[in-house]
């Protein structure tokens, strides 16, 4: 058994014939078991009728989020910006963009969230600023100390004497060269993303100090942490070497044309994370409220590249295995319980000792969960991720099974797609998963009183919306809410994890802890019914009690099934417990048995 200080998430992993067993036994900080809800502010809730979501809209829905079981909200970019890339092009790190409100609105949001026990995390983009940022304007005019705040190069002369960019690096946004000429400075500046998103030179110590000031500023305003954006792109090769051709069948201006060995995943990226972690630790050491402020990191890469951020101090490096594993993520027909089990085991076994696991199923950059996996798998993935140990992150709308919205080329706003063409844009656009939240069946799905909103509302909002799901006896939302309650039980927080594949079609996982009610999640990946034995979970009673079931399932809360022979409907998703438990057995009401009456009330049983 691993025993670490209470600030760590101590785990021991045992690979046994039946499957993975993860033992979790340590006192934990708030962030080590929290449920994070990502809010895309433009499309969450519009409070003033201008067709764009805002901070006051978010504040108006905090009670709803609290009731849903959300403990932490992560708000995507809200800093002042020209909005070329939906706020990822920042022109002032210390102010709120007027489209979202004011600093006073933000302070009110944080204060109300605190009253409800909800933590607030903000997006922070340290790789680049907008070309409208005052620092870039000063740098472009060679005004010290800002002259070297950004990556500049005078370029090279080709055989004809024509000045060219210093190398062949390409923009992530498929717009060709990652270098742009400045007439004012008579030099090229680097932009790994849009032309107006200018890359910092983070080898400049002055820039690193600026990042620390920005972090402290928002921590001072009450946020519980920051999510660091686009970490793999922070540093580039100091020698500016050309990148090799990838061999992929894409145009030479597309990002995929090159193998990005000199512009991604450099070791300096990790070393900067260590500098930031030291800054967080220093900040935490000076506070008196007992709240540990934390750093979440975004970095798409291999599992080894991502989990390495743990070693350099990231509290939570986002785990994208359920997104970036192409077999599991994008081909529902070839999904299998074995692949899901592998994803879970791969992350747990790759984490360094004492790290906190985390699970992400969707976000603003990828197709929605219901679109990737199919609507019949919404309960499946919400049950699994909510009842895995550690941190769970859900993207707004996935809790009600929202799907991607079809947008024409003319309706597309995402620069990553707009830099392609009408024949290819759908392979690059991120707009379909960023459309307005579907609150009800009124004007603009209850998102806004305005019929003109920044992205088209999905036409299925009349039937697929939160209000309808709250009114239904059973729904994706109610299942999410029920699983969230079970997540917050003692066993949901601290129970050992065991994962098992039964036959070819059934995935099962348990959470067990001596002296506490156990939990068992059982999933049938097949479209056809299957009968299986769950005797692998011998610590459960011979009769199992249903706590929640997928929206198409006939089983209700309180129904019982036999452990030795359970018939699962096609695409079934169940949460079970032993049938011989009663709330009177406990002095602590945070037990599964004590939740059963409220679960029955949820589902009108």
Q: Tally the helices.
A: 18
Please report the total strand number as a whole number. Answer: 27
Calculate the mean pLDDT score and round it.
Answer: 93
- Structural shape: globular
What distance lies between the first and last C-alpha atoms, to the nearest angstrom?
42 Å
Report on the biggest sheet: 8 strands, antiparallel
C-alpha-based Rg, rounded: 25 Å
Signal peptide: 1-26
Protein name: alpha-glucosidase
Catalytic activity: Hydrolysis of terminal, non-reducing (1->4)-linked alpha-D-glucose residues with release of alpha-D-glucose
Organism: Cephus cinctus
Descriptive labels:
605 residues, eight-stranded parallel β-sheet, globular
Describe this structure in words.
The protein is α/β, with parallel strands linked by helices. Helices cover 26% and strands 19% of the residues. It has 18 helices and 27 strands. It has an 8-stranded antiparallel β-sheet. Strands 17-16-15-7-4-3-19-18 form an 8-stranded parallel β-sheet. The two termini are 42 Å apart. The model is unreliable at 1-10 and 326-334 (pLDDT under 50). InterPro entries: GH (IPR017853), GH13_cat_dom (IPR006047), Glyco_hydro_b (IPR013780), O16G_dom_2 (IPR045857). Residues 38-434 form the Glycosyl hydrolase family 13 catalytic domain.
Spell out the blueprint of helices and strands.
Blueprint: E1 11-16, E2 19-24, E3 35-39, H1 41-44, H2 55-60, H3 62-68, E4 72-75, E5 79-80, E6 92-96, H4 103-115, E7 119-124, E8 128-130, H5 134-140, E9 152-153, E10 156-157, E11 163-164, E12 179-182, E13 187-190, E14 197-199, H6 205-220, E15 225-228, H7 267-286, E16 294-297, H8 303-311, E17 316-317, H9 321-324, H10 326-330, H11 337-350, E18 358-360, H12 369-373, H13 378-387, E19 391-395, H14 415-418, H15 466-471, H16 476-487, H17 490-494, E20 496-502, E21 506-512, E22 519-524, E23 530-532, E24 543-549, E25 560-562, E26 566-568, E27 573-578, H18 592-602
Parallel strand pairs: 3-4, 3-19, 4-7, 7-15, 15-16, 16-17, 18-19
Antiparallel strand pairs: 1-2, 2-20, 5-6, 8-14, 9-13, 10-11, 12-13, 20-21, 21-22, 22-27, 23-26, 24-25, 24-27
């Amino acid at each position: 058994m691993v025993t670490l200080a209470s600030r760590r998430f101590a785990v021991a992993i045992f690979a046994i014939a039946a499957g993975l067993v993860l033992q979790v036994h340590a006192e934990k900080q708030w962030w080590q078991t929290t449920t994070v809800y990502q809010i895309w502010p433009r499309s969450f809730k519009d409070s003033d009728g201008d067709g764009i979501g805002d901070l006051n809209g978010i504040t108006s829905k905090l009670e709803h989020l609290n009731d849903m079981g959300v403990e932490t909200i992560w708000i995507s970019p809200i800093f002042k910006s020209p909005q070329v890339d939906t706020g990822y092009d920042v022109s002032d790190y210390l102010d709120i963009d007027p489209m979202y409100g004011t600093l006073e609105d933000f302070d009110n949001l944080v204060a109300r969230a605190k009253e409800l026990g909800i933590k607030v995390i903000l997006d922070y983009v340290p790789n680049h600023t907008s070309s409208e940022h005052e620092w870039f304007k000063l740098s472009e005019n060679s005004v010290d100390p800002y002259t070297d705040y950004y990556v500049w190069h005078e370029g090279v002369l080709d055989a004809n004497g024509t000045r060219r960019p210093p190398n062949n690096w390409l923009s992530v946004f498929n717009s060709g060269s990652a270098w742009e000429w400045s007439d004012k400075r008579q030099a090229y500046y680097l932009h790994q993303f849009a032309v107006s998103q200018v890359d910092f030179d983070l080898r400049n110590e002055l820039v690193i100090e600026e990042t620390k000031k920005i972090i402290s500023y928002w921590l001072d305003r009450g946020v519980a942490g920051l999510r660091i954006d686009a970490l793999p792109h922070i540093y580039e090769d100091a020698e500016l070497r050309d990148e090799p051709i990838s061999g992929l069948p894409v145009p030479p201006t597309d990002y995929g044309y090159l193998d990005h060995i000199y512009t991604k995943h450099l070791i300096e990226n990790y070393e900067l994370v260590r500098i930031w972690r030291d800054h967080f630790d220093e900040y935490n050491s000076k506070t008196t409220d007992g709240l540990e402020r934390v750093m979440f990191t975004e970095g798409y890469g291999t599992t080894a590249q991502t989990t390495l951020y743990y070693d350099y101090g990231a509290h939570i490096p986002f785990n994208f295995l359920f997104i970036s594993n192409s077999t599991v993520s994008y081909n529902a027909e070839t999904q299998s319980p074995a692949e899901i089990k592998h994803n879970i085991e791969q992350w747990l076994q790759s984490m360094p000792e004492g790290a906190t696991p985390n699970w992400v199923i969707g976000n603003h950059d990828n197709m929605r969960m219901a679109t990737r996996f199919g609507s019949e798998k919404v309960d499946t993935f919400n049950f699994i991720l909510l009842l895995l140990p550690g941190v769970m992150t859900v993207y707004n709308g996935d809790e009600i099974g929202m799907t991607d919205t079809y947008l024409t080329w003319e309706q597309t706003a995402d620069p990553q797609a707009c830099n392609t063409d009408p024949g290819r844009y759908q392979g690059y656009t991120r707009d379909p998963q960023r459309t307005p939240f579907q609150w009800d069946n009124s004007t603009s799905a209850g998102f806004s009183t305005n019929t003109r909103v920044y992205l088209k509302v999905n036409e299925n909002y009349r039937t697929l919306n939160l209000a309808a799901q709250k009114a239904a006896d059973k729904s994706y939302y109610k299942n999410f809410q029920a699983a969230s309650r079970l997540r917050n039980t003692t066993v949901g927080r601290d129970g050992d994890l065991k994962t098992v594949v039964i036959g070819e079609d059934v995935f099962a996982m348990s959470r067990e802890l001596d002296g506490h009610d156990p939990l068992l999640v059982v999933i049938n990946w097949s479209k056809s019914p299957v009968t299986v034995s769950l005797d692998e979970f011998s610590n459960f009673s011979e009769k199992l009690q249903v706590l929640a079931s997928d929206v198409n399932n006939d089983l209700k809360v309180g129904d019982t099934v036999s452990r030795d022979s359970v018939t699962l409907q096609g695409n079934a998703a169940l949460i079970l417990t032993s049938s011989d438990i009663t709330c009177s057995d406990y002095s602590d009401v945070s037990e599964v048995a004590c939740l059963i009456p409220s679960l029955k009330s949820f589902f009108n049983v």
